[in-house]
């Protein structure tokens, strides 16, 4: 507990950005139903992403020529406003959060020229090719292989739970480039930039509890990838993926996925003619409390990143507690109304059915708790 | 190093020496530690220079308050600091002895020096009464008429609960590494590791909430952040104390083991200056009074600059 955490106020630039984003979102919010907003960062809307891109809000922390070099905290302010409003950010979320930064960090200049401008415009969407049928939490068990061929590599295997693969143009996939999985584990893994119109590649949608198909199974049948699409260093895939996962775990989407329900519920309660009961005020107050505390934590994580300190302990705790809050939100909001409006009811039902994934995506709860235990020195 | 950092270093050293000297059941008042604290000028640290203090704010004192609490609050340091700050801000002259927010227990009261006082609120006015005269109890047992006293008390309890949870976590980590069952240390069991992780999460979240509330209080905009911090702290007690005890097995319920004092403190503090229900309703009401629930979240958690730390 050192005494210098979380002690800097938001900069005038961040506060000004917040106003700009709120103004931008206000023009949309009447078009979106609560059901739409409940989809949050699962909603894929190319036109919306292009509008966001036009304002310089995708890849905004990247240095010129690809971005405006704005601060990590400014990006958080942007992200959280988008999430709180339930904006459909799914078409640019993954590329902005992790694919772009990874390409910027380890990609060749040709790769950066080829992909980053399209990402920043909101034209190019990325998906993540990590999990497989036999490798979920145990990512080091992946079996999909890349073998050398003239001028490039041949990919074979299956990636699973690939969100929005059917709407994305590029996957960053993790493949085994040497040795068998059982012996090599974290070694011999390599990342590739795979353009999803390549031949031999098949994308099969998987219907989820909501009857929607964000998830996909992506099957590789001798898919050819040229040498210049290898991302980073051959055999260094594990280290690259780990740094990517740190980005995937620490953002405000880890506790705000269900927040549009809270905002809608508070609005409906305020509009009701009857006096709001004490128990209902307490339910609402508890949801606001938990959200505010997680926001403080997430801003502490951003502060640590800015000071080049390791934020992983705080980031993992934020995600673990965030998923718990997100999963508690829909039933809590439901308890506030005898008869919610049809739109809110639909939004609650959607969130209930989406909520099992909240404590799975980006690292299952049990994996996170194991990481926290390791940080405590007991593993 | 800032004054606050130097003070924290001294407090860590003092409390550790005092804990080595204390033996067994620690539910009393550590008179030796108190006189060392007085020598350091600690009791007036949050009073202005003119009153003989160091003029330190809540953010600067967070580390000291939390650490003292993690050690079981063997002297009422947090209560004395805050009571003196309140007395000074009301224009009165602070006293030199330890100050309790409520009547201390028998063994604690007997060991306290004659200079010990209880902070008593009558309507909006505060006074320091000798133990024998404070029959009605102190601010922690009554409904203080001043919102500012409630806020200061609630914030102190939130900070102290954050410290006590960290103290419980430190004990739990050490205990699971030392204690073996089925031929291996408890810390190697995944079920135990996950309980430790959950306890750590509660400690970290409470500390984040309390730190935020300290910064907001220093900036003169503490109301909502303190409500949130006290609520989060109370919720963390409900979950965290049970986890700490589950991890410790029966050892945790013996009065001799330091977790006992931490647990008793946390349970009492979560009730004082507004319990979970009280603050949850207050936060809910505040949220509904704003244009959007998001505005409540943002206004309670937008970071504010803390003097001395740029």
Helix count of chain A, per DSSP? 13
Poorly predicted spans of chain A: none
User: Which spans of chain B of ≥5 residues are poorly predicted at pLDDT below 50?
Assistant: none
Give the number of DSSP strands of chain B.
Answer: 5
At the fourth level of CATH, the homologous superfamily of the largest domain in chain B is: Butyryl-CoA Dehydrogenase, subunit A, domain 3
Rg of chain A over CA atoms, rounded to whole Å, is 21 Å
Identify the strand order in the major beta sheet of chain B: 1-2-3
Strand content of chain B: 5-15%
Oligomerization state: heterodimer
The coarse silhouette of chain B is: globular
CATH class of the largest domain in chain B: Mainly Alpha
Give a quick account of the main beta sheet of chain A: strands, pairing sense, barrel closure: 4 strands, mixed
CATH architecture of the largest domain in chain A: Up-down Bundle
Q: What is the top-level CATH class of the largest domain in chain A?
A: Mainly Alpha
Report Rg of chain B.
Answer: 19 Å
* CATH architecture label name of the largest domain in chain B: Up-down Bundle
